[in-house]
Design a protein that fits this description.
By secondary structure, the protein is mostly helical. The protein is built from five helices and two strands; from the N terminus they run ββααααα. The radius of gyration is 26 Å and the shape is elongated. The structure holds zinc ion (ZN). Zinc ion (ZN) binds next to loops.
């Protein structure tokens, strides 16, 4: 394989001029370079594909998910402390539920999308075939963030009491 220095197009070894821009081609790539080049391209394709999928679990989603897991654990510690001191943990049930929902939304978005499709099914026929769009993508991010935010707020206010 030969890579055009001017436009970056890949050309077969036999070509002397770039198939895209007509530039004179240099030496062909070594086997190792060619392997690296192919790996880079397939990585780019994979990234493109994933970024377009609204149900893709991004770095941000993972952070929210980890914060939610910590939130569940902290809540459970408070539940145990309350048990020891004979206090009620009712105020902690809500944040635990919110954190668990946020964990699901962050790490397994396909579950909430399936539920959303069932909901949409009441309004339109063929909702089963729907693909999540950009609006759903942003709703998902905002929902996750709100769940975590409200959960943390409830825990902090219950601690201050
Ligand atoms: Zn070229």
């Amino acid at each position: 394989m030969k890579i055009c220095e001017k436009c970056g197009a890949s050309n077969s070894d036999a070509r002397r001029f770039c198939i895209d821009c007509g530039e004179i081609l240099g030496e062909k790539l070594s086997d190792f370079q060619e392997k690296q080049y192919r790996e880079k391209i397939s990585e780019q394709i994979e990234n493109m594909y994933n970024k377009k999928d609204p149900l893709y679990v991004s770095f941000y989603d993972k952070i929210i998910g980890v914060i939610s897991i910590i939130g569940v654990m902290v809540s459970l510690v408070f539940v145990v402390i309350n048990l020891i001191f004979g206090k009620s943990s009712q105020a902690l049930m809500m944040p635990i539920l919110l954190f668990v929902l946020a964990v699901v939304e962050a790490f397994v978005p396909k579950i909430t999308w399936s539920i959303e499709k069932i909901r949409l099914g009441f309004y339109a026929n063929g909702a089963d075939e729907l693909e999540p769009g950009q609006i759903y993508f942003w709703c998902r991010k905002i929902t996750m963030t709100l769940l975590v935010f409200v959960g943390i707020t409830i825990i902090i206010t219950s601690c201050l009491q």
